[in-house]
Write a structure and sequence with these properties.
This protein has 351 residues and is an alpha+beta fold. It has helices spanning 41-51, 95-106, 134-145, 171-182, 204-208, 218-225, 283-293, 313-316; strands spanning 7-9, 14-16, 22-28, 55-60, 64-69, 72-77, 80-85, 111-119, 148-153, 160-165, 193-202, 235-240, 246-251, 257-263, 270-275, 295-304, 326-336, 339-348. It has an 8-stranded antiparallel beta sheet. The protein is globular and about 55 Å long.
Length: 351
């Protein structure tokens, strides 16, 4: 969320900001001594000019560099790059530059996998190309990575889009052999999981916290909302926009991260939560997030590798028992090479 780039609608005289984010994640094949963190801040700033956003703040752990942006966040680890941007940003336009930097500066020449996802925009026609429609996004991604696979999940107005790569025949065996040759071990098969909760139509009293009128600074908003208690042990880097809006990154010693972005305006209230924290069940975390923000509607997605603690978490969402005030409107399950995905849409029962 940014405090700028507001769109005025003369018909309803409202202020609108597109809180829905575009999320791209690229994994590179492990190579000895290759590291995306060799890319300098100035180089990243040049990349982000293409995206139409800029770096606001920075924090890091031993395993991940975390950047708060004027429109959401970026995370950089040894072989994974994550960019999540809202508003009218154009993240897919920077992919070519990132691939070039990965090869020339970081030493990564092979892409292992790509995930691009987003919820349906509130105002899709306001987006800039190629983000004005999913077909154009897929076409551009295919121009970089070859033939990928595109998915559309959920009902039309609440659908969630996903693009990922098709696995090459024998990819796992080839990667294992390559890693043994460079002395890395079977790191391509490292456990991985991500939960994302995309919330809309939120409680106005909660959203008021994330305005300069109610909170003097970001730390005050973080404490008042309970964000600091969602995942213990996170070093928090937060930012409160003027006059409203909030972004935060959290990093832990074990390499886990979380990120939250809030668009509090009543006409377009939206909150996104994402983390790769390892858990056998996400029930308690999901309940804490919902209690903190009190959305009327939300989408939850869980990606998990079969060898991660989160492998069972996606299946457990099907029978999640702590949603007494919500009903599940849609749910879908997909299995990819190396990952399982569960998507679900929930709406609050009428009061």
């Amino acid at each position: 969320m940014a405090g700028t780039e507001m769109i005025s609608n003369s018909e309803s005289n409202d202020q609108f900001f597109e809180g829905v984010e575009k999320l791209i994640e690229i994994w590179f094949t492990p190579v000895k001594h290759a590291d995306l963190r060799k890319i300098t801040r100035q180089q990243w700033e040049n990349v982000l000019k293409i995206v139409r956003c800029e770096i606001i703040s920075f924090t890091q752990s031993e395993q991940v560099d975390a950047y708060v942006l004027s429109e959401s966040s970026m995370f950089v680890s040894r072989r994974r790059w994550i960019l999540k941007t809202c508003g009218k940003t154009t993240p897919l336009r920077c992919v070519r530059a990132v691939l070039q930097l990965a090869q020339e500066t970081a030493g990564h020449s092979r892409v292992q996998n790509v995930f691009y996802s987003r919820r349906e925009f509130a105002r899709p026609t306001a987006q800039l190309k190629p983000h004005d429609n999913f077909d154009s996004e897929v076409e551009l991604l295919d121009s970089f990575f070859g033939d990928g696979r595109a998915y559309i999940m959920g009902p039309e107005k609440d659908c969630w889009y996903l693009y990922t790569l098709l696995p090459l025949e024998g990819t796992v065996d080839a990667l294992e052999k390559e890693q043994q040759n460079v002395g890395i071990g079977c790191e391509s098969l490292e456990p991985d999981q991500t939960i994302e909760i995309l919330m809309s139509d939120l409680d106005p009293a909660v959203m008021d916290i994330f305005t300069r009128a109610a909170s003097a600074n970001a730390a005050e908003a973080t404490r008042a909302s309970g964000i600091d208690k969602l995942i213990p042990g996170m070093v928090i880097d937060d930012y409160l926009f003027d006059p409203c809006g909030y972004s935060m990154n959290g990093v832990a010693k074990d390499g886990c991260y979380m990120t939250i972005h809030i668009t509090p305006e009543p006409q377009c209230s939206y909150v996104s939560f994402e983390s790769n924290v390892s858990a056998a069940s996400y029930d308690a975390l999901l309940a804490r997030v919902l209690a903190a923000f009190r959305p009327n509607k939300f989408i939850v997605t869980v990606f998990a590798t079969p060898n991660s603690p989160g492998a069972d978490a996606s299946r457990q969402l099907k029978k999640f028992s702590s949603l007494g005030t919500y009903s599940q409107k849609d749910a879908q399950h997909c299995r990819f090479s190396g990952y399982e995905l569960h998507y679900a849409l929930y709406c609050k029962f009428p009061s």
